[in-house]
Amino acid sequence: MTWQLDVDAQRCIGSGVCAGMAPDFFVLGDEDRARPLAGRLEPDEVVLDAADSCPAAAITVTEGGREIGPRP
Ligand code: SF4
Q1: CATH assignment at residue 46
Q2: 33 Cβ contact list (under 8 Å, min separation 6)
Q3: Could you read off the pLDDT of 26-63 as tens digits, one per residue?
Q4: Fewer C-beta within 10 Å: the chain N or C terminus?
Q5: What are 53-68's pLDDT values in tens digits?
Q6: Which residues have CB under 6 Å of ligand 1?
Q7: Structural domains in the chain (count)
């Protein structure tokens, strides 16, 4: 099942952690806010690692409508 990846631009502080950890999935865009390179993706653990590591809790990963990242 594919995952859905979202970055809340209101929460993102532009730390660049996600783009550094998972450059295939995140890019820093306008005004130093991260955005996903693709909203839908094949499951990849590094995306969850990035969501866990975001200092602003701005990254959400969902699978079939269920939030799976960041992990508790
Ligand atoms: S790790 Fe979080 S705060 Fe840092 S750029 Fe990515 S989404 Fe923004």
Answers
A1: 3.30.70.20
A2: 7, 9, 12, 14
A3: 999 988 999 999 999 999 999 999 999 999 999 999 99
A4: C
A5: 999 999 999 999 999 9
A6: 7, 12-18, 34, 54-56, 58-59
A7: 1
